[in-house]
Amino acid sequence: MEATALAAIDMHVHVEQDSHGCYSLDDELMDASAAYFKSSAHRTPTLAHIADHYRARHMAAVVFTVDATASTGHPALSSEEIADQAAAHPDVLIPFGSVDPHAGQAAIRHARRLVTEHGVRGFKFHPSLQAFQPNDIRHYPLYETLAELGVPALFHTGQTGIGAGLPGGRGIKLRYSDPMLLDDVAADFPGLTIIMAHPSVPWQDAAISIATHKANVYIDLSGWSPKYFPPQLVRAADSFLKHKVLFGSDFPVLTPDRWLADFAELPIKDEVRPLVLKQNAARILRLGVSDHDGSGPRRHV
What pLDDT is recorded for position 290? Predict the structure, then answer.
């Protein structure tokens, strides 16, 4: 992938349907999510559709599913299939994998195979949906493996549209997605790149604090239209966190077109926008692009 030819890199794109017609969530959770996001567009695009969507916009997309088999009982989409199909679209798709933390040593073996045999470039976790506490030391061997493999871990943080509006939220607990739980992980695994996904409402200040304090922690800005970003997040992204925030849409529930149109209206400096839209992500993903912003030495990755 030639990053210099890209307009942007979307760090947060869900694969909701595989080539066999299977879905990432059961019907009740899928419908609740669509209602929460008021998603009337194509809610379950295939990987080929995603590739076409982003190629038409000269963007790259980090694509993934979430393996929540243990907590939901719903079979996960295959991360192997996602990675292998993404390999047919190397100009626009960057595959992340997903493993179920409850699987223990099997998750570790699975993660290693996904990287070494299928070219996965990182991993997505959703603590609330997967029903695990990220700083539980039982999951530390998995993080150690990801750090050894040199791939980032992307964690959902804050509230979630999955289960929203259902009785008891379908048993999904928001507290597992408190970003402060990731502060322990970041401190204990300084060699692991951690990306906190979404404005972390209601814990936004905690997320900003962690990303400021921990060199290995970043924030992706997916899941919310930028016009609804908390003001302190906009100020941080435009200043002291300008090298630590990443464009992400949460496609298909929020399109990159909508996100970018609203981002254009934010009070963000012109020299900061390329960092958010592409250069910070390119550095994390080790794509070939300079992230020079005029304030320091030029670095190439």
Answer: 44
pLDDT at residue 22, as a whole number: 73
Alpha carbons 50 and 52: distance in angstroms, whole number? 5
d(CA 64, CA 15): 6
The structure tokens listed for 115 are: 């990287």
Q: pLDDT for 134-182, tens place per residue?
A: 999 999 999 999 999 999 999 999 999 888 889 998 999 999 999 999 9
> What torsion do the CA atoms of 250, 254, 258, 264 make, to the nearest 10 degrees?
-30
pLDDT interval class at 301 (50, 70, 90):
very low
CA-CA-CA-CA dihedral for 96, 99, 104, 110, to nearest 10: -70
CA distance 97 to 108: 12
Can you give the pLDDT at residue 232? 98
How many CB atoms sit inside 10 A of residue 291's CB? 18
C-beta of residue 157 within 8 angstroms of C-beta of residue 197: yes
Distance of CA 156 to the CA centre of its chain: 7
pLDDT at 132: 98
At 29, which amino acid appears?
A: L
C-beta separation of 115 from 149 below 8 A: yes
247 φ, ψ (degrees, to nearest 5): -65, 130
Q: Which among 246, 170, 169 has a CA at the least distance from the CA of 207?
A: 246
